Amino acid sequence: MTRTSLALALAAVLGPATLASAETSYFALTPRLERSTVIDLGTVRAEGAGIVNVYLREGGQPGRLLGSVPVTAGANMDVRVPLSAAPTRDVIAELVVNGQIVATRTYDVAAR
Known about the structure:
The structure is a single chain. The chain is of the alpha+beta class. The chain has one domain (25-110): Immunoglobulins (Immunoglobulin-like, Sandwich). It is built from one helix and eight strands; from the N terminus they run H-E-E-E-E-E-E-E-E. The longest helix is centred in the N-terminal third of the chain and has 22 residues, at 3-24. The N and C termini lie far apart (60 Å). The relative contact order is 0.24.
């Protein structure tokens, strides 16, 4: 089997798994947060044990990492992430399971 054929076969197998991950892992809270050094993301549903990383939004992309918190498989209620500093602009939360980003959400940060 050539490398190209192997890559195509791997993409065909992994493609549906990525779609399934997007359906079973998500952030459930509304996308507006208060400016604080601890943010409440509400319920986070994860397909497996993982971690939520919160980044400062820079140019529409994740920038500086502000904080992280581990989550378990299933529904994680009242997920609160301590941050290194209160964000001065919007943030992006990423849910990472098995080294893969399975959910992403941008949150508007309101001034206190």
